[in-house]
What we know:
Layout: E1 34-35, E2 42-46, E3 49-50, E4 57-65, E5 74-78, E6 107-110, H1 118-121, E7 123-131, E8 138-143, E9 150-154, E10 159-160, E11 167-173, E12 180-186, E13 193-200, E14 207-214, E15 236-242, E16 250-259, E17 264-266, E18 270-273, E19 284-289, H2 310-319, E20 326-329, H3 341-354, E21 359-361, H4 365-368, H5 388-393, E22 406-410, E23 413-417, H6 429-439, E24 448-453, H7 463-468, H8 477-486, E25 491-494, E26 500-507, E27 510-511, E28 518-520, E29 526-531, E30 549-553, E31 557-565, E32 568-575, E33 581-588, H9 591-595
Parallel strand pairs: 1-9, 3-10, 19-20, 20-21, 23-24, 24-25, 25-29, 28-33
Antiparallel strand pairs: 2-4, 4-7, 5-6, 5-8, 8-9, 11-12, 12-15, 13-14, 13-16, 14-15, 16-17, 16-18, 19-31, 22-23, 26-27, 26-29, 26-30, 31-32, 32-33
Domain Calcineurin-like phosphoesterase: 285-500
EC number: 3.1.3.2
Keywords: Glycoprotein, Hydrolase, Secreted, Signal, Zinc
Amino acid sequence: MNDHTIWLVYGSGNLGGYPSDEQPIAKIKIDKAFIDLHHLASVKVDPVLLGLKGEDTAWVNVELKYPEPSNDDWVGVFSPAKFNASDCYFESGKSHEAPCICTAPIKYMFANQSSSNYISTGKATLSFQIINQRADFAFVLFTGGLENPKVVAVSDPISFANPKAPVYPRLAQGKAWDEMTVTWTSGYNIDEAVPFVEWGWKGQTPRLSPAGTLTFTRGSMCGPPARTVGWRDPGFIHTSFLKELWPNTIYNYRIGHMLLNGSTVYSKMYSFKSSPYPGQDSLQRVIIFGDMGKAERDGSNEYACYQPGALITTDQLISDLDNYDIVFHIGDMPYANGYLSQWDQFTAQVEPIASVKPYMVASGNHERSWPDSGGFYNTKDSGGECGVPAETMYYVPADNRAKFWYSTDYGMFHFCIADSEHDWREGSEQYKWIEKCLASVDRNKQPWLIFAAHRVLGYSSNSWYAQEGSFEEPMGREHLQKLWQKYKVDIAFYGHVHNYERTCPVYQSQCVNPERYSYSGTVNGTIHVVVGGGGSHLSDFTTIDTIWSLYKDHDWGFVKLTAFNHSSLLFEYKKSRDGLVYDNFTISRDYRDVLACVHDGCEPTTLAS
């Protein structure tokens, strides 16, 4: 028997209420797990020391032997490897007659996944991809399926050479146009090491910028599973502000920690291009999508049924890095749903993108929604996270990151990113902010005005919205459409619904322009786009004919906006599977067309001379 201590607790909540298409780890009834190690069962992992050359991800082979195999046998990956009683949390009023493991695995795979003869031989070899998550790992063989898990063997622990190493940098625009923020995760608290970013032009003496450090605790979570079996220490999240950048300039950078003994731990070298000056006339390319989720390249966690397109979209964006400048992921990022280990998995998945392009995010229901937590909705979609991991793991240039609305400029674009998890109705704090954001832009310098939110505050032909008879998030456009019209918003983007749909330029549910692919002249209505097909399981359309809908696609994809100059914008919808364009239109106009009077969008005039 391996020398492992597995602490047992009573009562970790019932996870059986999750629907089958929800977080795969929630399918495991870890509260029913018990220990019954079999003397002839074994789990051996190779290699045992990872990241010897500084890598933050590695593949390992897991060799299983069990004399009583069944199709329900599975291997869970636990981290830390040695369960600690201090990690257990007792919910008030909850109890259980039998002992159980108090922490969910970070991933799992069925024993017969890669070996069709496992049942006949009791032997199998599985391949797992492991990322550096600040602790060691143990691989545990269970029988009894996910419903009645029984531990029969536990591996010796494996680990990365430096579990605390700085990993998964993610860029975001700062509050000023000439500022870039770098956020990353490590295992170093400030009493162990000083975090910083080394950066500058290639060939020049680099500069050092300090970083602030944040974290959060189990007590910051609002409910289970985030407070119970889903809890995992998030480590430390560092953010540095690189200021006084020159526009459209390539900078190299690496993240680091200066240890108390005087030595320094560095990441590998990365690079980014700084933002253009607001109003600058240059080629500017923007990617927008929502609801990506995460998936496992090793095939674990049954993600084929959960977020089957996540890696398809991720890989398409990685392959096209040279052809866009900034990314907006408008909510529903990892769908961790209270299983905190999945945030690390997601930051690792998008690291090839987010480490070299500003990766701007919005708040979705799976990040924020939880009853009695100050949000607009009382659903349990966040799994008890109530926004805390998203607000800490990702920087946004908001005045208050707990209120996830913000504006940002990128050259000729001005973006107003709303938070649909907080009240947006007329008279609310956010409504006043939205109007201020839309009104603040100088359309002569920044002609392209973009609104975005996670939930569909505009128009959608999604089946469940159709059943409600609203074709939108209730109370969405009835409160906001007069602002879109008054300030002549070009395009409004939404996620939440997992498909693609584009409307005509529309106001009060009526198309105000008969064109489909080429728009010119006066801005007389806003085009609404649902772009929630980033990777999660797809949503169905209604069979009702919605007169304002011009194009629908039941597939994974994303939008690319290309501003060639102050008068010409190209919109392209691309499928993730091949990167080809399946829907597009152009906008061509002059400044006077933005100023022109339209219905409910006219500036007051006087007869005085």
